[in-house]
What we know:
Layout lengths: L1 H56 L11 H25 L3 H37 L1 H29 L5 H36 L5 H32 L7 H73 L1
Helix pairs in contact: 1-2, 1-7, 2-3, 2-7, 3-4, 3-5, 3-6, 4-5, 5-6, 6-7
Amino acid sequence: MGMNETSDPDTTQSELNHIYDLQSQTILLVAWAVSAVSLLQIIWLGAQVWTERHSVILKATRVPSVVTPVNLVIFFMILSNSGYCWSLCESWISTESSVALASFIMEGFFSVSFRGCLIAYTWIRGRPIIELVSPGGAIFVRIILVVHGIGLIAEWIVIILIAAGASNATPYNVISLTNSVLLVTSDVLVMSFYLLYLRRIRVEHHTVVTSDNKLQIISRYGCLSTTWLILWYSVSEVTTLTDWNSTDVTVQRRFLYLIPLSKALATIFICIQQLMKWSLQNQRKLNESSKITTVEKAKLKSTQHSVSALQTNFHESLSSFK
C-alpha cells in the first residue's frame, strides 16, 4: 500500500511529461498545417483579385483598386490566424523566458487582431442588408461592434500587463468572457437580419434583380459564417478559460483536441469567406452575361423590325407602279 502511494505521483508526472511532449508536437504540426493552408488562401485571394481586375479592365479604362476593405480584412485574417499559431508554438516550446514572454505578447496581439478583423468584416458584409431591413437596427449593431472593439483593446492591454507581471489572469478572463458575449450577441443579431431579408424575399415572391442576387448570396453565406463563428468562439473560449497550468492529466489531455479543433474552425471560417467572394464573382459574371444577352436580343428585335419595315415599304413601292 505504501509503495503504491509513493509511485502514484511519479506515474502521474511521467504521464504529464508525455502529454506535454505530445502538446508541443501537436502545436508545431498545427502551426505548419495552418501556414500551408494560409499560403494557399493567399494565392487564392490573389487569383480572385486578379480576376476582378481583369474582368473590369476589359470593360473600363479605370483600373480597379486591389486594396478594398474586403480584400484587406481577409488578408489580415489569414496573417493573424497563421501568426497566432506560430506565436503559440514558440511560447509553448521555448525554454528561454524572454522569448516565451515575447511570444505570449504576440500571441495575444494576433488573437485580438483576428477578432478585430471579424468585427470589421461583419460590418462590411452585413451593412447593406442591415440598413435595408432596419436602418435603426444598423445603428444598434454598430454600437455593439464599437464596444466590442474597445473590449478587444482592453484585452490586449491586460495581456501586456500580465506579461509585465502587473496583473493576474482574472481581469483577462473577465474581459475575454465579456468580449465573447458581445461577439455572440452581434453575430446572432446580424444573422437575424440575414434571415429576415431571406424571409422577405421568399414571402414577397420578389422578382430577383442584380442587387438582390448579391444580397441573397451574402445572407446565405452570412448565416453559415455566423453559425460557424459561434462554434469556433465556443471552442476557443473553452480553450482560453481552461487552466493551462493544471496538473490534472485529463485537463492537459484536453488541449490535444481543443487547440487543433479551434485553429481548424478558424481556418475553415476564412475559407467560407473566400467561397462567398467566389460566389459573388460568379454571380457578377452571370449578371453581365444576362445583360449582354438582353442587349443582343433587343438589337436583334430592332433589326428584325427594321427589315420588316423595309420589306413593307418595298412592297408598297411595287404596288404604286401597278
